[in-house]
Amino acid sequence: MPFRGKLFFLIIGFLFLCGCKEKEEPTYTIGFSQCTGNDVWRQDMLRGMQRELAFHPNTRLLYLDAKGNSQTQISQIKELIQAKPDLLIVSPNEAEPITPIVEEVYQKGIPVVVVDRKTASSFYTAYVGGNNYEVGKTAGQYIGVALQGRGRVLEISGLPKSSPTVERHRGFSEAISKYLGITLVKTFPGDWEKNIAKTRLQKNIAGLPTVDLVFAHNDQMALGAYEVFKEKGLVANTKFVGIDGLAGPLGGIQMVNDGILNATMLYPTGGEEAIRTAMQILQNKPFNKENILSTAVIDSSNARMIKMQTDKILTQQEDIERQQKRNEEQIALYQNQQILLYSLSGLLVCSVVLGAWALYSSVERKKINKKLKTKNRQIIEQRNKIQEMAEEAQAATESKFRFFTNISHEFRTPLTLILGPIEGLLHGKADHLMVKQNLKLIQKNAQRLLWLVNQLLDFRKLEGGKIRVTATENDLISFIREIMLPFEQLAKKHHIEFKLVTNLSNLSVWFDTNMMDKVFFNLLSNAFKFTKDYGRIQIVVEKDLSLNCVNIKVKDSGIGMSEPEAARAFEMFYQGQHAANKGTGLGLPLSKEFVLLHHGNINLISEPNKGTTFTVQLQLGNNHFTEEEKTTSQVITGEHQLSKNLLEDASPVWETPTNITPQKHHVLVIEDHPDLRNFLKFTLQTNYQVSAASEGEQGLAEAYENIPDLIICDLTLPDTDGLKIVASLKTDLRTSHIPVIILTARTGLEQQVEGMQVGADLYLTKPFSPQVLKESVRSLLTNRQLVKERFSAGEVLHLPPTEGVTISKLDKKFLEDFKRIIDAKLPDPDLSVEFLGREIGLSRVQLYRKVKALIGCNVNDYIQTVRLNKSCTLLRQPQASIADVAFQVGFSSATYFSTAFKSKFGVSPTDYKNQHLRTEPV
Ligand code: FRU
């Protein structure tokens, strides 16, 4: 059976046990004052009481024995009262002396049961005992018959003042008075005790006449008399009659049976009856006040049978007592087991309670855990949310910072193109044309700055909610045509198919012309910015009657956007990944805000390398505008014209002065901004031969092709990062020697370090002074000249480094390889530029230009110099002939060697040899 099943039955069993238990009897205390306790009759009475009490286990018996002394009994009764008994049983020693104390107990409300002997009053609750008069009378009647009406009788009484003595004597006297032949010779007290009776009889027997029968008030005194008579040899003619008829070996029945007594009058002790009556009183059950026990004569005729019966009764009583004892033991065991069971049950209940508590706790804990988990999850969610918000805030702050950095950068190019020309105008000897060109450039860039500032202000106004639509009714078609106009030239220049696609000749739409001008100018600028030559840009205008709106689509076939770029295109400050996309990050968000202020919509679809389509949706009619948003006269701000001026074709045309003389050094400018590119070109062209590239890859190709003497490269290029261009230049053997100046709007130290790390020679930040630029170009080229001078000697590689003269590792290795190949191939008359180029991995021209740039002379001259220098060393050897030396340094003819030697050193090889043979020690 599973544990839970066992537990269930145990609990049910326990409850059943508790439920089946008899209604328990209250606990009682019964005090018992016995007049004397040392005779068998009284002992039998006590045993009878105890037997009866066995049925009342909760009742306690306080027993005191007065040992036949009335005073002792009085004080013992008082003692018992102190113990506050529920009931008192008194067997008075003598009636008179004991009566007051019994009355007192009775008056106090304590029930009193008087047993055997009586008190002198009826102030008691109940009486249990034999009828002593009747007993005396029965004895008298028996004696009358036994003596056949004639004879002398001696009477031995109990205590003279005890009630049985009085009543038994009265009954006896009455009975024998009927027999005239019977004489009571003497009555003397034996005080209920055998020995007292015996002693008194022994004293008096001599003075007594012959007696035929001794009648004693109890069997014990009768036995005493018998013994005295026996001593005197008088028993044969004397009969002995007693009272009590106790069973057992010392009792009267045995004495009759043994022939000691002739008869005994049964006088029951009443022990059981006394307790029974007491319990009835205590339990408030009906009871008899007088409980008189009956008597009977036991003589030789029935003694045997009675003995047998009483023996049996005694045996049974003994059995009962044994049984009782066992019962008591069982009860004790049961009680112990009960205690154990209760303890176990208690433990079980505790376990059940604890188990239930544990179960409850576990359920509660689970609930709490669940709650905690929920709380935890909420906290984590909140934390994540906060983290997300923090990240968003961080991203917003970062994009704001980036925006401000970028917008500052945006300012730098126009500032360069304002400050540079001003510097030129202030310092240069400008002619009229140059002044005009410079002023045009200044104006355009000041306008560019103004445009940027206006964008910033629009942004501020939008952020502060201060910008408001002022809508007027306009013809959308002609408005769009007007916006398209300034772009047409640009489209033509770049061979871009640019047109308006619509079947509407006009369409009345309410909008704020200043705002929509910015929106479409911005969308078209973007389209042109990202559409390559021979591409297509369209503006499609379609009416959507179902939605009562018009859709204006600006479609281009440009580079397009990636999905994430498209998703964030309208985000404030967001700049695309593509280098060329990096504008202010304001154009599209501002456009969107403007469209939203018109209660319209703007969205885009884009595919990388396919193109982008922006759709602006404007509602027809004017019900969607509030009264404040509608007006009849639009104020035209100057921004429309301003935007137009910013277009590429509005750039000043830089005219190259005709009087420029061809320059020695070639400078390559890689710059996407047309005005800046032209300005750089214009600034440098008086001193250098300048070529320009608008894209990185194009610049790189140009550099490889023409090996310029210096390169100026912008850091932000449309197709690639300027740093990558510099890195390519500096790691390519063809161009590694070329000094590079990086131009950038980024002023940060980190960017400068990055620039230097890829090998840039100078980092120039915008706005830069044209003078500083010119000076930087000059100083770098001078430095390169120093390197050349140093290396042109032919032994350069072994010289200590010269202050300010630097050479890259790549170039140093190039020179080492170059020299090593020449040294090894020196005897070969076919050692040529082509051979060296092949060995090193450069074309003839590239090798030529590189060597020229690094050493300042052409390759053939360099080989010739090395050959002739080496011949000097060989000529100094005494045994070397001129022809041998010429052969060893790669001259195919001794004559050509002599001519070349003389032209370089001013002496013929023979003279040189002779001079050195003389001067050098042999
Ligand atoms: C015992 C006894 C009995 C007698 C009774 C009378 O003490 O003497 O023998 O019958 O008392 O009270």
Main pleated sheet: 6 strands, parallel
Query: At the third CATH level, what is the topology name of one domain?
Result: Heat Shock Protein 90
Q: How would you describe the oligomerization state of the chains in this entry?
A: single chain
CATH architecture of one domain: 2-Layer Sandwich
> Poorly predicted ranges (pLDDT <50, ≥5 residues)?
795-803
Protein name: histidine kinase
Pfam family, one: Response_reg
Organism: Adhaeribacter aerolatus
GO molecular function, one term: DNA-binding transcription factor activity
Describe the structure.
- It catalyses: ATP + protein L-histidine = ADP + protein N-phospho-L-histidine.
- Its EC number is 2.7.13.3.
- With 922 residues, this protein is an alpha/beta fold.
- Among the domains are: 132-268 and 294-299, 3-Layer(aba) Sandwich (Rossmann fold); 468-648, Heat Shock Protein 90 (2-Layer Sandwich); 666-791, Response regulator (Rossmann fold, 3-Layer(aba) Sandwich); 808-919, Arc Repressor Mutant, subunit A, CATH 1.10.10.60.
- It contains 29 helices and 24 strands.
- Helix 3 (70-82) runs parallel beside helix 4.
- The relative contact order is 0.04.
Topology (SSEs and partners):
Elements lengths: L2 H18 L7 E7 L5 H14 L5 E7 L4 H13 L4 E5 L3 H13 L4 E4 L10 E5 L1 H15 L3 E8 L5 H14 L4 E9 L4 H11 L8 E4 L2 H13 L7 E6 L7 H6 L5 E4 L4 H12 L7 E4 L3 E3 L3 H125 L4 H32 L8 E4 H18 L3 E5 L6 E4 L1 H18 L5 E9 L4 E8 L6 H5 L19 H11 L3 E7 L3 E9 L19 H8 L19 E5 L3 H11 L4 E5 L2 H11 L3 E5 L7 H10 L8 E5 L4 H9 L4 E4 L4 H23 L16 H17 L7 H8 L3 H12 L3 H17 L6 H7 L5 H12 L3 H11 L3
Parallel strand pairs: 1-2, 1-3, 3-4, 4-5, 5-11, 6-7, 6-8, 8-9, 9-10, 14-16, 20-21, 20-22, 22-23, 23-24
Antiparallel strand pairs: 10-12, 13-15, 16-17, 17-19, 18-19
The protein binds beta-D-fructofuranose.
Beta-D-fructofuranose binds next to helix 2 and strand 9.
Enzyme class: transferase
Protein name: histidine kinase
InterPro entries: CheY-like_superfamily (IPR011006), HATPase_C_sf (IPR036890), HATPase_dom (IPR003594), His_kinase_dom (IPR005467), HisK_dim/P_dom (IPR003661), HisK_dim/P_sf (IPR036097), Homeodomain-like_sf (IPR009057), HTH_AraC (IPR018060)
